[in-house]
Amino acid sequence: MNPLSGCKTLCVLFLLAVGTTISLPAQTFTTIANLDGTRGQYANASLVQRADGNFYGTAYEGTFRKSGSVFEVTTSGKLTLTHYFCSRTGCADGGFPQGALIAGSNGDYYGTTSLGGANGDGTVFDVTEGGTVFTLHTFDGTDGANPFAGVIEGADGNYYGTTVDAGAGFGTVFKMTASGTLTTLHSFSGTDGAFPFGGLVQATNGNFYGTTSDGGDYTDCSDGCGTVFEITPGGTLTTLHMFNNADGFNPYDALVQGSNGNFYGTTFAGGTGTNCFIGCGTIFEITPSGTLTTLYNFNGTDGGNPLASLIQATDGNFYGTTSGNSVTTGAAVGTIFEITPGGTLTTLHNFEDGGGQNPVSALLQATDGNFYGTTYNGGANPCSGAGCGTIFKVSTGLGPFVVTVPTSGKIGRKITILGTDLTGATSVTFNGTAAAFTVVSATEIKTTVPAGATTGTLQVATPSGTLSSSVVFRVP
């Protein structure tokens, strides 16, 4: 099997071919920008919030070299090209980014390209706050190839990620230092999983968790239905679950650890839904020890074939997207949904009602409380007949909050706090322990983990009220 045949890009093409329709009431949904090809097209990764309150994103194709881009977009929809890939001789800076950027603790942003680089096998790159792109590592096949997901920053300050090819032939898990020195932690063999298209999440226990789209037990699926795995920072991998089609097939994106300590994710296909050609997909919960529960089976009329990971919002519920709907009539356009930890699903927006089509990336809950996301196709500007894609906002009435970069740190570590309307802040506390701080702007505060701080909620007192962090800040 060619691992690239399972990628989000080709899955979208498949969905466009099969056709779907549903009609569900829309929520407060706004298209804030339409990609146009010159600044990128086919956005298949989630956005990341910058310190200035704007967002960085990546587009898979478009721009001058047709090899994708990094772009910046404001909350009001002003779109700016930051970098176009294959801009350097031999495409040394990479091309065709599939994964999302992440904010590093040093103020830069980090991402991957699925192709390009000196060997054509993809890269890991660094984007400065000012928009300059540096190539940190070029894959050569022996250390992995074709990273489709972005990297994450571990608690140790190193970066961790996956490639879908090379290694032993079925993809790898890697660790990379901030200077670009890469170590392969694990090469998948097929029986322990194959083709990890999704990225990693570091759990509160310090280990990493992820999925492979194929591999595992080959009894129920010709190439294996996919797996959930745990891997230690030292590279010891444990397969926690092998999907069997009935409980899902092809998990394509990362897990998210919920506030209860369990992990939540999606499968593109499989499950009990019968209105999709290969199954409509599922939403599942899995414990750190590997006990899996199917929370929801899509049936086509409520959406289908989710390609993206979930996020847990400040209300405790999970939010996500499906890339398609049923296969009865109409076009495969996708949905935005909310699901409770108990498995009750509500469709928030049906893209058949407008605003683009085929969302294949996770949502971002920005510090203003709203959700922002991208669609791979659709919008006001045509690209290959399917539309160049869009950037949208969904408002559900959730209030503002703050996030920390990073989300954990020892006493004395420098921390950046992102938020909205932070001007005039009067205090910053780590689980009740006061910290010295500097207000940089209305969207950014600099602070340091104070002596006596313990794991808990970070809070910022402002003239308009107290803002709490969206996740618990961990003090090792």
Descriptive notes:
By secondary structure, this protein is mostly beta strands. It folds into two domains: 3-395, Methylamine Dehydrogenase, Chain H (7 Propeller), CATH 2.130.10; 403-468, Immunoglobulins (Immunoglobulin-like), CATH 2.60.40.10. Helices cover 2% and strands 34% of the residues. The chain is built from one helix and 36 strands. It has one helix at 8-18; strands at 28-34, 48-49, 55-59, 69-73, 79-84, 102-103, 109-113, 123-127, 133-138, 152-153, 159-163, 172-176, 182-187, 201-202, 208-212, 227-231, 237-242, 256-257, 263-267, 282-286, 292-297, 311-312, 318-322, 335-339, 345-350, 364-365, 371-375, 390-395, 403-405, 414-418, 427-430, 433-435, 437-441, 444-448, 458-462, 465-468. It has a four-stranded antiparallel β-sheet with strand order 1-28-27-26, with no helix packed on it. A four-stranded antiparallel β-sheet has the order 2-3-4-5, with no helix packed on it. The protein is globular, with a radius of gyration of 21 Å. Residues 1-6, 13-26 and 326-330 have low confidence and may be disordered.
